[in-house]
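Session log. Operator J.P. requested a structure for one protein chain; no other inputs attached. Running the standard single-chain path with token output.
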Amino acid sequence: MIKTIEAAAKDVLAWPMHRQWSANRKKNVFRSLFGCLPTIVAELWQRILNIDGADEEKTAEQMKATHKHLLYALCFLKVYGVNEMVHCSIMNWPDEEMFRKYSWFFIKKLWYLQDSLIIFDDRFAGQDQDLDNISQQCMMSVDCLDCVVREPGTRMSQWDLGMYSKKHNGPVFKYEVGVCIKTGFMVWVNRPYKARTHDLPLFKDELEKRLLPWELVEGDKGYRGNIKVRCPDVGINTQERRDKMVVRARHEAMNGRLREFNVISCIFHHATGGYEDMKNKHAYCFGAVATITQLKLLQGETNTCLVGK
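Structure written below.
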């Protein structure tokens, strides 16, 4: 399967016959253009085939989809150019409509895989004690990730002030992400909210209701005032405060891994269909990136680029 994926990449990129296709070059090409190694792409393909039909969408076989079409979606998420012409120039000039059709088909498939990889109950993974006698109260850290988007309205009268973020000076969707303190894997990703939604009501809306009665979470100062959240300044001694800094740093590292994909870190410009269409498309893309990132962590892939090799 991995050899098939690599061959599909060479074909879709029109890789010159005279140019070296070494192991390091191959890794850099896949990480730069697709956001993950061939092993991860092969695993994603197999998982997509396993869920075909369960998501009430057309199957890959019905769509006559091949490995190169999955690479279309990964290129879209990783590169996210100003228009489809940028992606098509990278992928050996397929028809723009075909590129768009297969990209969104596989993005939705990857989004659907999210629930099988990011599991809320996995926040208890790695605990030495049974839950009845556990000594720790915080199983996960939680924080919001801002994603800048384009204003869907064409006139100022159509602009939604609830989307405005003072921090980014523009419209933003924010996602609540939870990371297991013990394992470092994602265990929670909430749906997109408007930028003006404060962290506290966002937390109360869903995540707080899912926690056990004794359970707390680690959060930043934006969650101050909620008894279920332990903020940075809540530390009994120096060691505990240092441990909390490590937890927050690990969470920021997770946010950084998600931002490795330009569809998350750049301005999301698929806004021509209006607010609801843009919100749904951005949610699909964020879920797809979360799926890929989680699988990379589970498979032990940590390097982002082999610089100088």
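Operator note: The chain has eleven helices and seven strands.
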